[in-house]
Design a protein that fits this description.
By secondary structure, the protein is of the alpha+beta class. Among the domains are: about 120-225, Roll (Chitinase A, domain 3), CATH 3.10.50.40; about 230-330, Chitinase A, domain 3 (Roll), CATH 3.10.50; about 350-440, no CATH class; about 490-580, Chitinase A, domain 3. The protein is about 50% helix and about 20% strand. It is built from 25 helices and 21 strands. Strands 15, 16, 17, 18 and 19 form a 5-stranded antiparallel β-sheet that branches. A 4-stranded antiparallel β-sheet has the order 4-3-6-5, with helices on both faces. It has a 4-stranded antiparallel β-sheet with strand order 8-7-10-9. Helix 20 (about 440-470) crosses helix 24 (about 590-610).
């Protein structure tokens, strides 16, 4: 009760600081339900920059939008949409996201980030021996595994090569191929406990046995080297064609020959690469480190030594590729990488270390009691036979029973009983904090309420507008027929575009097109074996398309030679013209649905205005208008 009173007091003080004396000023009512001036101010200040329509930023217009918003919420609650299971489940997911900033542990996170950064500067090459052991193994099985790993270590220490001992003892299936050698790795490349031992062991030394969730290990560190950093490359990819196995290969080698002749890599990537996400950027990919891409791609990228070098065509399971090295990035400073490293820590197995530290800090504010006797039963009894009502521990008088722990325990794998219990207790402390955050943090309470309203409004719009517009095919067609003139194709042409790097070759291409020679005939006449002088692309384009020259208007026949850039000559051949025409419903369904939804929502909002009585408080409205310009 005391905690609850303190929470209410904090909420009142917080709101008073924000809104002064406006807390109790009613701006308007909807069927008697109060809407306060303070809420309008808070919502306006938060959203005023999001409202793009200039007119809607005027006071009266924004107030009308706010009234419409509250009317829709009123309707949603009257329909009891906030009691539906799907809404409750979605709200729970949103709450988890909203709580995340309140669960930060910056000191511990930074400490682990600095450790990880130091390790990213060095790559470790290590070999290992694994003796498998279940986390919940019985003592006698644990002893057998430990003796086995110790026997293996004695042989290595006596001088028998690690690889030979690994092939004899290790239960890692890959040992047959690699003799236990795991290759090079750095931070985040292995589970954290394994990584720790690898970095703490000197080159040439063999570690003492240690245990992970997989069993007992020995590590021999073969080498440590400076990390290679990252690469930024541009990429041209031609996808495999299952119907013509040679077409992709032939095209990539045509492109390769064009590159050797001096053609612009970015231009070719934009026009011909099948990796559409990178093609629009001239083929440029986000920078990446060693081991982050599939092996053939990774090997090719890190084999390039000089910026501006490019690879020969190479093949992967995705198709044919050419890479161009744009920039070599050494390992950045800790300050530059800190955010990235902290994100990796929070999403990986290091996160349990953060939970442990966070639970320790939070737990200091709670009254906690632990029943050691009840807990000890987990180590000596059959858990299914235990007294399920026995309390293991309590947090502020909230009890956590043996049955609660058992339900958690039986779903956990790859951990010892000690690890599972500590994780369960830490998670319970954190979950208790999350469950009571609305009572102890007024800022969170306000934000969470906004999410409740937003999600409720989403469900209402989906029910009343979006689903209706998609299912009401008759109404959609009626709307389309009424507004048919809004949906029009511009002038279009079925055409082919020829790209050349030399004027004399472009002139030849233009001549052959005028002579009605086919594309294949022109390529045979203009290209000289491995030397590619012309590339073609074909399709249907609207006038004004970005793929066409800026000053080109679609017309039948062969165009003049356009010269938009250095070493770039373009000729367009239009075989068919389609004049401007109204689009069919199939050709513009998405746009029509959007417009139809807007009409439905406007009509629905008008109906809500008639359904509910909105009564303005004229005195408080007048005061708010005076303040509006300063908001």
């Amino acid at each position: 009760m005391f905690l609850r009173k303190i929470s209410v007091l904090i909420a009142v003080l917080f709101t008073t600081v924000l809104f002064g004396q406006e807390k109790e000023e009613v701006l308007f009512t909807i069927d008697g339900d109060n809407v306060y001036t303070s809420e309008f101010i808070r919502v306006y200040q938060k959203n005023k920059e999001i409202v793009l329509d200039k007119e809607q930023k005027e006071f009266d217009d924004y107030l009308e939008l706010f009234i419409d918003f509250k009317l829709k919420l009123k309707e949603a609650k009257d329909l009891k949409l906030d009691t539906i299971v799907n809404y409750q489940n979605e709200l729970s997911k949103y709450k988890e996201q909203l709580i995340e900033p309140y669960l930060q542990n910056p000191e511990a996170t930074e400490r682990l980030a600095k450790e990880a950064y130091e390790r990213t500067l060095t790559e470790v090459n290590a070999s290992h021996i694994l003796i498998r052991l279940a986390p919940n193994a019985k003592p006698k099985d644990t002893l057998v595994a430990y003796q086995k790993i110790m026997n293996a270590r004695k042989k290595i220490v006596s001088g028998i090569p690690f690889e030979k001992v690994a092939r004899e003892y290790s239960e890692d299936p890959s040992v047959k191929q690699n003799g236990g050698n795991l290759g090079y790795f750095s931070a985040f490349g292995m589970v954290y406990s394994f990584e720790n031992v690898a970095y703490q062991t000197n080159i040439g030394d063999v570690s003492k046995p240690f245990r992970t969730q997989f069993g007992y290990h020995l590590i021999k560190v073969n080498d440590k080297r400076k990390s290679k950093g990252e690469r930024e490359v541009a990429h041209i990819m031609i996808k495999n064609n299952p119907e013509d196995s040679l077409s992709a290969k032939n095209k990539i080698f045509d492109i390769y020959n064009k590159l050797k002749q001096g053609d612009d890599f970015a231009k070719i990537a934009m026009e011909h690469s099948d990796d559409l996400s990178s093609a629009k950027k001239g083929g440029v990919l986000p920078k990446f480190g060693s081991g982050k891409m599939i092996k053939p791609f990774d090997d090719a990228a890190f084999a390039l030594k000089n910026e501006e070098d490019y690879t020969q065509p190479f093949h992967t399971k995705y198709g044919w590729h050419i890479l161009k090295l744009l920039k070599i990035y050494p390992i950045e400073s800790f300050e530059s990488l800190q955010t990235y490293l902290e994100s990796k820590i929070k999403s990986g197995n290091r996160s349990k270390l953060l939970d442990k530290d966070l639970a320790r800090k939070i737990g200091k504010n709670y009254t906690m009691k632990e029943d050691v006797l009840a807990l000890s039963a987990f180590y000596v009894e059959d858990m299914e036979e235990m007294n399920s009502n026995a309390t293991l521990f309590s947090i502020n008088e909230e009890n956590y029973s043996a049955n609660d722990f058992y339900n958690y325990y039986k779903n956990e794998k790859n951990k010892t009983t000690d690890q599972i219990y500590n994780d369960y207790k830490n998670e319970s402390i954190i979950n208790y904090y999350k469950d009571h955050l609305e009572e102890t943090n007024a800022e969170f309470a306000i934000i969470y309420q906004e999410y409740k309203d937003g999600l409720l409004l989403f469900d209402l719009l989906q029910k009343n507008i979006w689903e209706r517009s998609e299912k009401d095919s008759v109404g959609l067609m009626q709307y389309f027929n009424k507004h048919r003139d809004q949906y029009v194709w511009k002038k279009r042409g079925e055409l082919s575009i020829a790209s050349c790097t030399k004027l004399e070759k472009a002139t030849l291409v233009q001549q052959y097109l005028e002579e009605n020679k086919t594309i294949d005939e022109i390529k045979d006449l203009v290209n000289e074996g491995a030397t590619i002088h012309v590339l073609f692309s074909s399709g249907t384009l609207e006038e004004g398309s970005s793929k066409l020259p800026d000053d080109y208007n679609i017309k039948l026949g062969v165009s003049k030679i356009f010269h938009p850039e250095k070493n770039q000559y373009t000729i367009i051949n239009v075989s068919k013209i389609m004049e401007p025409v109204n689009k069919t419903i199939e050709e513009t369904r998405g746009e029509v649905i959007n417009d139809y939804q807007k009409e439905l929502e406007d009509q629905w909002t008008s109906d809500l205005r008639n359904k509910y009585k909105v009564k303005m408080n004229k005195k408080n409205l007048k005061k708010l208008k005076k303040r509006f310009d300063s908001l």
